[in-house]
Amino acid sequence: MTESRTEPPYPPENAPGPDEVLWQAWEAMELPEGYRAEIIEGAVEVSSTGRYAHSQTVFLFKEALGDFLKGGDFAARNATNVVHAGCVWVPDLFVVPRDTERYVTADGAGITAAAVRLVVGVVSPDRRRQERERVMKRREYARAGIPVYVAIDDHDDQGTVTVLTEPRPDRADWVGVHRVPYGTEVTIPEGPAKGLVITEAITGPARAAK
User: Fold this and answer.
1) Structure pTM?
2) pLDDT digits over 60-69, tens only?
3) What is the 3-state secondary structure (H, E, C) of 88-119?
């Protein structure tokens, strides 16, 4: 009589799920200085820090936000992981309560997206990074219910600023979309930064059509 063999289930019953494996891979990454890793829409995305023009825009916007929020309960931050539902982002700039201790994740990896009241993305020249900021992160931030997303896009026509409000997490989209060219002032309409005017002092002046 031939002895029957039962193959163990694959993957093993106690094996971590795909999301946990992805998270473990992200946590284990050791990147050289000047690089960052994010988890965006189910994939680990690695990118370098921005060029001078990119960092200068972030710097100017952070200064403007810092002056606007000075003395209040909120502050502008960057270079910090923002975590939501298995995703990790490192936004160029965002606004959170000054006291963020209660929003720190249990493992200390970053702060939860629930703390974020406004997020700013400055679009890079690299095509892959443009896709992340214009499409993927736009969806991710809406899914997380972040109230306001400001995208500064040096590579859209002659340069544009888009302010997105009223996120729809169920649709990964936004109800309010206000897009203007460089040189046209746009005001943040809600949240701790309500009333802050984004001017050409941050983006640079209007550009002539190509």
Assistant:
1) 0.83
2) 999 999 999 9
3) EECCCEEEEECCCHHHECCCCCCEEHHHCCEE
